[in-house]
Amino acid sequence: MFEVYFNDGSMFSSGYHNLNKFIEISDNKLITQMKVNIILTTQGIVKNYYSVKYILRNFEKYGLIRYYHNPNDKFKNFKFIRFIGKNSFDNNFSLLELVPPNNIIISTISINESLNKLPIVWKKGIINNKSEIKIIRN
Amino acid sequence: MYKIIFEDNTIFNGGHPGDSKWNDMPNKKIKKLEYNIGKYIIVLENFEAYNHIIEYSYTLSKNNSNIIRILIIGKFDKIFYSIIIDIKNKKIFLKKSRQIEKYTGWKMGEKGIKPIIKKEIINV
Fold first, then answer.
1. Chain B residues contacting A via beta carbons under 8 Å
2. Angle at Cα A73 formed by Cα A69 and Cα A75, nearest 5°?
3. How far apart are the first and last CA of chain B?
4. Does the beta carbon of A79 lie under 8 angstroms from any beta carbon of chain B?
5. What digits encode the pLDDT tens for the residues A94-137?
6. Residue A56: which of A25, A84, A29 has the closest Cα?
7. How many angstroms away from the CA of B111 is the closest CA of chain A?
8. Taking the domains of chain B in order of start, what are their residue ranges?
9. Lower CB count within 10 Å: N or C terminus of chain A?
10. Could you give phi then psi for residue A19, rounded to 5 degrees?
11. Number of C-beta neighbours around residue A77 at 10 A
């Protein structure tokens, strides 16, 4: 799930596991930060669930892309999901990439790579400080 | 890094900041939490719930992450007592509040009459 916080103090939540809500984020508001909550399992014999929160903040715009193993599969199993932060003065995309079930990758990729060719839905953000991705975990 | 003493007096030793093992601890009520940081031991006791949070900042230009804050939190009667270890500014302080960020990973504690927080210097 994700939550976005706006510069007018309001927020928007996707609810549990509903990434389609990203498109409903208002285009009339400016995002200050986007929080992504990810449920993971421990590596031991007994599986415990825990969550890690990632915060993308201080980007000019925010995007979301989902890649499916097979788009026609009715279960729509994700190959990976990318939350993206982008600034006009930077040629790179900043990525929070989730690869089910347990891999999370933070990286930057160049604008020349394949991401540029994909139809990303962008939502407007506002920069108050240095762009960063913050990680909150136990 | 930290030591948990449970209500049955068994002990769980936590890991390190890169892998704190907080979510691996047994599901038993916590009697006492002892946290080692530098020359200090921070002790929390009598809380109804405990949490341990590590905040990292990922520097995109350098492709690495650094710990910026560690929070040790005790909840008692709807008040959150957060011991904030500010790594960047080398400060340790207590913040009391009725509302905090929505954290997961809460562990039940053995609630006492009143919350105890101590910061002790380790004698070498």
1. 20, 22-24, 51-60, 63, 65, 68, 101, 103-105
2. 95
3. 17
4. no
5. 989 888 777 888 888 876 666 656 678 899 999 999 899 999 99
6. A84
7. 22
8. 2-121
9. N
10. -70, -20
11. 10
